[in-house]
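REVIEWER CHECKLIST
Item 1: Sequence provided? yes
Item 2: Single chain? yes
Item 3: Sequence as submitted:
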Amino acid sequence: MFFIQHSYPKRKRRKTRRGKRQRKGCAAKNAELTANIQPEVKSIVNLSHRTLTETEKDVLRKGLGYIPSNADNLFNVEVDLFKFIRALKLRVHFNASGAKGGSGRIEIQSNKDLEMIKRKLGLKSSFVPSYTPKCIEMFEFMVKQDLTKLMDNSTKKFNNGNMSKEEQRALMDLKS
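Item 4: Structure as written out by the authors:
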């Protein structure tokens, strides 16, 4: 048995940082092509009897891909943080008290047991453990501190999201 090995001369390539071949002149060609393209004018067909204002037309021209962002709400973020911290505390509390493993099976011997289980499953607990480990307290403190810094900075820069007041009113009018 013979193996024939062909040896071809390797092509010389110029490599970029990521190891791919560098293309010459591609950016210049793309710049010429984009300079010749006119911006696309989006038309709106109004099927209702209502006449649309210019701001309503501007909002509709943004299309279905446009997503209006809401202004940040610190209260909702703090509620979510409280729920998360409570879940962490509960996990630490119940893992430390020895409620590990188990088969997960409950033996029902009478209708009273069944009713008790239904009642326990139906009620949601509002229990928050009084003992909190230092690591969870530190985590909560640091997250709250970062949130207040973030909210202070965000209110100075952009308070109303990515729409002007007129566009927000026009969107609310279109929804109604």
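Item 5: Key structural point noted by reviewer: Residues 74-96+125-175 form one domain.
Item 6: Recommendation: ____
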